């Protein structure tokens, strides 16, 4: 007859096995994310040193289905310095503020406009660039094309009537700006549309994109190893106690 102290813990073993699979799976997923993030950072680094390409040519490629996310382009936008704008809530380097988003009219066939993120204005600044729709002086913009991030369950709802935007919803923003046939990507300006207005900070990319996926992977793998160690120690102690009891019973 098997002593109760020496019975193999089937239920606990199954639970530990399931937890181990989850922990190892999370660690492996973080390694996959690490590979993706390293590729992204390499692409951004190459972008920062690459010359700007033609905006008109990029829009034609975009219409043909090319992936132009993070591509640097140069585009001429009539009246951008005094164009109407939307205010998109943003946080940059720990400071809250808004990003000013305007429409640039283009003539590229499929797309008739593209949204331009002109830059960041910190909350402490209440002034805004002047708006004058009759001022159509051309503005040369160098910037980075970005795919708008989708909303998530924590994103507040956009309020077009109050000009409060929290998510780059290209169709809704274009409609609010009366811009026809907008391109699906947003042009994040690197150069200022209002050089005389220093409060507007063109900021196309985050100042520092974190890459802690290796750290996360090692954490998950470390937890998996710790789980195996605790489980093995528990089995050793259980069977050791059972062996002692059997030895004492035989002596008696």
Structure description:
The chain is α/β, with parallel strands linked by helices. The protein folds into two domains: 15-49 and 212-243; 52-189, no CATH class. It is 38% helix and 20% strand. It contains four helices and seven strands; from the N terminus they run H-E-H-E-E-E-E-E-H-E-H. It has helices at residues 10-49, 55-63, 170-176, 213-251; strands spanning 53-54, 72-78, 86-92, 95-105, 113-122, 138-146, 186-189. Strands 1-2-6-7-5-4-3 form a seven-stranded mixed β-sheet. A hairpin with a 2-residue loop joins strand 3 and strand 4 (95-105). Helix 1 (10-49) runs antiparallel to helix 4. It is elongated. Mean pLDDT is 87; it is low at 1-5.
List the helices and strands and how they pair.
Blueprint: H1 10-49, E1 53-54, H2 55-63, E2 72-78, E3 86-92, E4 95-105, E5 113-122, E6 138-146, H3 170-176, E7 186-189, H4 213-251
Parallel strand pairs: 1-2, 5-7
Antiparallel strand pairs: 2-6, 3-4, 4-5, 6-7
Helix pairs in contact: 1-4
